[in-house]
Amino acid sequence: MITQIIAHRGSKGTRPENTLAAFNQAIDDGADGIETDVHLSSDGELIIIHDETVNRTTNGEGRVFDKTLIELKQLDAGAYFSEKYINERIPTLEEVVDLLDQRKYRGIFNLELKTDKIKYPGIEYKVYDFFKNRPIRFHLVYSSFNPKTVSTMHKLQPDVEVASLFKINTKAARKFIRHKIIQEWHPSITWVRSHRFFLPHVALRPWTVNSAEDIRYCCKKRFKGIITDYPARALKIRKEIQGE
């Protein structure tokens, strides 16, 4: 098995995270996959950003859920990273998928539904409706820390791969594997390292695998994939170990 290199929030280590610049760089790097996060705006738009608030990655303040799409689009989502990326904007899910289609991207698109802190009403159905109404040319994967969201996405689209995210507690993930609701686990690399002598016989894509040491460890173990802020670095190390 060749370990898949999945770009965390795009090429997060080299570009402002979850922006079109980051996703373009991940594609340019040759990443096997792209991981990103979706929230809802106050007017029901599917918004690509990691945090529940805009404070960390933009020049604004407040919760995503309290702002309209127009208000979110007025924020600068690149200047915090570097002045080179001033005027990068928070993208919508539609804008990201349009970019992937324009780039003829055929890799993994791992969309995390961010429902573990805010229970965005109906977000699962909005995501389902979005993809139901357009051709999917890449390999779509849903993931979430919220077990209810994992179950709902599986019921809505049983033909789409779903993964369970966790930091420590594996109870829900083990149940989902038994009932064949999910195909793999997306645990933290800290959890993987602490369980290295008795890892379960489950396909793993750990996050966030950034150090050369951790990347080598995962590639030597031939995990199904890793989620990393530095896809170019990871691809180079994978080639050294796995030859591809």
UniProtKB/TrEMBL annotation:
One GO BP annotation of this record: lipid metabolic process
Pfam family, one: GDPD
Single GO MF annotation: phosphoric diester hydrolase activity
SUPFAM superfamilies with a match to the protein in the record: PLC-like phosphodiesterases
CDD domains assigned to the protein according to its UniProt record, in alphabetical order: GDPD_TtGDE_like (cd08563)
Domain GP-PDE, first and last residues per copy: 3-238
Xref: Gene3D superfamilies: Phosphatidylinositol (PI) phosphodiesterase (3.20.20.190)
Domain of life from the UniProt record: Bacteria
Record protein name field: Glycerophosphoryl diester phosphodiesterase
Organism (species): Pediococcus stilesii
